[in-house]
Write a structure and sequence with these properties.
Layout (H helix, E strand, L loop, with lengths): L4 H4 L3 H17 L12 H15 L8 H9 L5 H17 L4 H12 L2 H4 L6
Helix pairs in contact: 2-3, 2-5, 5-6
């Protein structure tokens, strides 16, 4: 049985650290930081850790319908999605994920672009 990226990099504890690093960078970002104003960050980090875990072979599961509903009102643009993906790739690298595995993880995130980015986004 092949090892998932989730298993390879230490599971929930490691992914939680990656997500915390990502949000530290995201909160400092002029492009996407505004999306996190007045947000319950511990709750968001927990949710995002489960979401990322699910994308890289972890035990959590999220339906596309649920992901779309959660993001629909945020009006996320393609540019903001690109910034998020770049910061997330940086966070994965900072926590020791190989370049090839970062690309695999980002490909999984890219697969959710159409349900995260606003439908009328440029």
């Amino acid at each position: 049985m092949a090892q998932t990226l989730y298993e390879k990099y230490g599971g929930f504890k490691t992914i939680s650290r990656v997500v915390m690093t990502f949000y530290e960078m995201a909160l400092d970002s002029d492009e996407i930081g505004h999306h996190f104003e007045d947000i319950d960050m511990p709750r968001l980090i927990d949710h995002q850790t489960k979401f990322v875990s699910s994308l890289i072979g972890g035990p959590a599961s999220f339906s596309d319908d649920r992901i779309e509903v959660v993001h629909r009102h945020l009006n996320i643009s393609h540019n903001e999605f690109d910034v998020m993906a770049e910061l997330f790739g940086d966070a994965l690298s900072q926590h020791g994920m190989s370049d090839g595995d970062v690309k695999t993880a980002l490909k999984a995130i890219e697969g959710k672009r159409s349900i995260i980015v606003a439908r009328n986004a440029a």
